[in-house]
Design a protein that fits this description.
One of its GO terms (molecular function) is DNA binding. It is an enzyme of class 5 (isomerase). It comes from Saccharomonospora glauca K62. Keywords: ATP-binding, DNA damage, DNA recombination, DNA repair, DNA-binding, Helicase, Hydrolase, Isomerase, Nucleotide-binding. The protein contains 25 helices and 21 strands. It has 719 residues and is α/β, with parallel strands linked by helices. The protein folds into 4 domains: 170 residues, OB fold (Dihydrolipoamide Acetyltransferase, E2P), CATH 2.40.50; 80 residues, no CATH class; 202 residues, Rossmann fold (3-Layer(aba) Sandwich); 168 residues, P-loop containing nucleotide triphosphate hydrolases (Rossmann fold), CATH 3.40.50. The protein has a 7-stranded parallel beta sheet with strand order 11-12-10-13-14-9-15, sandwiched between helices. Strands 16-21-20-17-19-18 form a 6-stranded parallel beta sheet, sandwiched between helices. The structure holds adenosine-5'-diphosphate and magnesium ion. The site of adenosine-5'-diphosphate has 16 residues, from helix 12.
């Protein structure tokens, strides 16, 4: 018999165990049994071929439609082309070499599982030399012999090269036969309270469901394990930070914050005012604020953050603003100084009476500037210090840091936020305000950001113009690409400006890959200058330009001295040139949904509608195209983040990804399992309140320890 901690070698034999270890990183019985089926094929129901993605390892259940044999051109032998279908779409399987037996076996009309890497071949999808297992009635080596009662449902596992789904299925079967029932990690009262089966039952049922009901309840139980693990850790975290105190910064009348409000050139939106009040109340207290502020690009988060920082300055303390890149930090410092005017010129000629100082502290400062900046932070002369997250790692000391504002949360990991908390000293944490333009669905906020309060700005300041987005399928409709450049010229002729964004800079050494590398700034610029954009004033911006050059280019563009800015994603956030009305994004499929959304927020900032053109060679029907279609379909960031989450999940399911990389969240869907997440949160809260270290609950303690680390890290990386 075997338990979950046992090595697989003793259960399935060395050969299979080695294959599972090297291909999927599965080493123990528990690893294998938590390698759940990606999905379940129903005998007779074929896999939807439209959902397959180039470059991924997939397992499809399909019917053979036709076969043809062609001689190979370059050497002796032949290619057997087998066309398989899901009833509407087709996929070609190419087998190389002389294999008369294969031709006999792969007859039209038969059904089987086919596994391999999806490639594009002459504009259609292909599997080259796939592994396969025929499963229709006249095959006697099919799954029916492997699994006697699994006559209807076929589990399809995340597979890897050389380790197709059905081999994994056999190993799982063997392992389940040997499995011993151990003490359940979830205590009995909890299982009873929520109607959950035991782990032993659930593991059997998820791999070999005898009915849909059994499968549903198994999945529910295993999702609980995941949700509870996350929530337990979060509950513990809340407990430990709950004991910390923060520097209290009550609002002060007659201070710099009031002076700033008086001279604001616009009226705050209702949302800005409400969120501002909530933040103000938090800052006044001695409990560390931990708040996420989400709002569309251009919704006016910066003003909200600045008002919070000024309240802190009024209390005689300091605020730090962290941006994801140096370019952005510099830009933030500039725009804060602009917004503040003479209120930011303390000690200078022309500085206002109640002024403070905004200090930029980045790696590209000269030694002398740097020394001064460090001094300003340490002495308290700088009420506001702006930098990148490097500010935390370096030996920067503050006189009295009370608030840290982080712009664009997605670039910051949880660890960085933790590092931050300890900055203010023993048992004292600064208040933290995190700003993001990519809204986060409630369940994600509860899970990944479980310890953050969230507020949203759902309304754009008046005077914003709509952005329309169009996907330009360059592979299918090359003429559309010409139209893109024409359109851009038209905007310039109207006196407007344009961005062209590329995924790559182009000064990297050439790669070995045969696939076309993504479009690069340095390659595209001469092509445009000598081609479709000849005669226009074109500027170049990317992360490897020296800092002063970057600044000069940005300034020239902002001043209207350039018509077109060809850039990498350095312009993603914060850049504000209202006269720019069109953005062309090359190889748009290389960017994530939220990144595209951020990027296009750079246009339509003035009173002219913005236009965003997403150029791609991804083929229709791929999930890359589905992502672009989502970006095209809505400019509502909240809606988009839901679509994105959904698409990512579907991609995972259909892709049967090569990597079997273990991660805590395998079944739990942050989108669909809101109820489980909410319930497990309440349970975790209760358990941790009574037993903070989980000493009375060793099963739960182990569950939490096992799952938590890579899950959070991974979600953050993917975003
Ligand atoms: P975000 O950081 O949310 O993308 P910003 O704070 O940078 O947005 O605001 C974008 C622009 O809108 C800035 O120029 C800012 O001064 C302006 N703005 C902010 N709030 C308002 C408002 N209530 N009314 C008009 N303009 C505003
Ligand atoms: Mg901003």
């Amino acid at each position: 018999m075997a338990v979950l901690a046992d090595r697989l070698t003793d259960v399935v034999g060395a050969r299979t165990a080695n294959a599972l270890a090297s291909a999927l990183d599965l080493h123990t019985v528990g690893d294998l049994l938590r390698h759940y089926p990606r999905r379940y094929a129903q005998r007779g129901e074929l896999t939807d071929i439209a959902g397959l993605e180039i470059g991924e390892h997939v397992t499809v259940l399909a019917r053979i439609e036709s076969t043809t044999k062609k001689p190979m051109r370059t050497r002796k032998g032949s290619i057997l082309e087998v066309t398989i279908t899901d009833g509407s779409r087709r996929l070609t399987c190419a087998f190389f070499g002389n294999q008369t037996w294969r031709e006999r076996e792969l007859r039209p009309g038969r059904t089987g599982l086919f596994a391999g890497k999806v490639t594009a071949f002459r504009r259609s999808l292909q599997l080259a030399n796939p592994e396969y297992e025929l499963i229709d009635s006249d095959s006697d080596d099919g799954l029916s012999t492997v699994d006697d009662f699994l006559s209807r449902i076929i589990p399809v596992y995340p597979a890897a090269q050389g380790l197709p789904s059905w081999r994994i299925s056999k190993a799982v079967h063997q392992t389940l036969e040997m499995l011993d029932a151990e003490p359940d990690p979830l205590p009995e009262w909890l299982r009873r309270e929520h109607g959950l089966p035991t782990l032993f039952e659930a593991l059997h049922a998820i791999h070999r469901p005898r009915s849909d009901a059994e499968l549903r309840s198994a999945r529910m139980r295993l999702k609980w394990d995941e949700a509870l693990a996350v929530q337990l850790v979060l509950a513990q975290r809340r407990r430990s930070t709950g004991g910390r105190t923060a520097p209290a910064c009550p609002p002060k009348s007659g201070g710099i914050a009031e002076a700033f409000d008086e001279r604001l050139p616009f009226r705050l939106t209702e949302g800005q005012r409400e969120v501002g009040e909530a933040i103000s109340a938090d800052l006044a207290g001695e409990h560390p604020m931990n708040r996420l502020l989400q709002g569309e690009v251009g919704s006016g988060k910066t003003v909200v953050a600045l008002r919070a920082m000024l309240q802190v300055v009024d209390a005689g303390r300091q605020a730090a603003l962290l941006a994801p890149t140096e370019v952005l930090a510099a830009q933030h410092a500039r725009s804060l100084r602009e917004l503040l005017g003479d209120l930011a010129r303390a000690g200078e000629l022309g500085g206002a009476e109640r002024a403070t100082r905004v200090t930029l502290l980045t790696g590209s400062l000269s030694a002398r500037q740097r020394k001064q900046a460090l001094l300003d932070a340490a002495s308290g002369a700088a009420g506001i210090v702006v930098g990148t997250h490097a500010l935390l790692g370096e030996h920067v000391s503050f006189a009295d840091l009370a608030l840290v504002v982080i712009d664009e949360q997605h670039r910051f990991g949880v660890e960085q936020r933790d590092a931050l908390r300890s900055r203010a000293g023993e048992d004292i944490s600064p208040h933290v305000l995190v700003m993001t333009a990519t809204p986060i669905p409630r369940t994600v906020a509860m899970t990944v950001y479980g310890d953050l309060e969230t507020s949203s700005l759902r309304q754009l300041p008046s005077g914003r113009s709509p952005i329309s987005t169009t996907v330009v399928p360059a592979a299918e409709k090359p003429a559309w690409l010409e139209r893109v450049w024409q359109r851009l010229r038209e905007e310039v002729a109207e006196g407007h400006q344009a961005y062209v964004v590329c995924p790559r800079i182009g000064d990297e050494p050439p790669s070995e890959k045969t696939e076309r590398p993504p479009v690069a700034v340095l390659d595209l610029v001469p092509e445009l200058e000598n081609g479709p954009l000849a005669g226009l004033r074109i500027g170049v911006l990317h992360g490897r330009l020296p800092g002063d050059e970057k600044d000069a280019v940005m300034r020239a563009f902002a001043a209207g001295e350039l018509d077109v800015l060809v850039a990498t994603t350095v312009i993603e956030v914060g850049v504000n040139v209202p006269n720019a009305t069109v953005m062309v994004i090359m190889d748009a499929d290389r960017f994530g949904v939220s990144q595209l959304h951020q990027l296009r927020g750079r246009v339509g900032r003035g009173n002219v509608p913005g236009l965003c053109l997403l150029v791609t060679e991804a083929l229709e029907g791929t999930s890359a195209r589905a992502r672009l279609a989502a970006v095209e379909s809505t400019t509502d960031g909240f809606e988009l983040s839901k679509l994105d989450l959904e698409l990512r999940r579907e991609g995972d399911i259909l892709g049967a990804a090569q990597s079997g990389k273990r991660s805590g969240l395998k079944l739990l869907s942050l989108l669909r399992d809101e109820e489980i997440i909410a319930r497990s949160r309440r349970v975790a809260q209760r358990v941790v309140a009574a037993d903070p270290e989980l000493t009375e609950h060793p099963g739960l303690a182990a569950l939490a320890a096992d799952m938590i680390d890579d899950e959070r890290a991974e979600y953050l990386e993917k975003t």
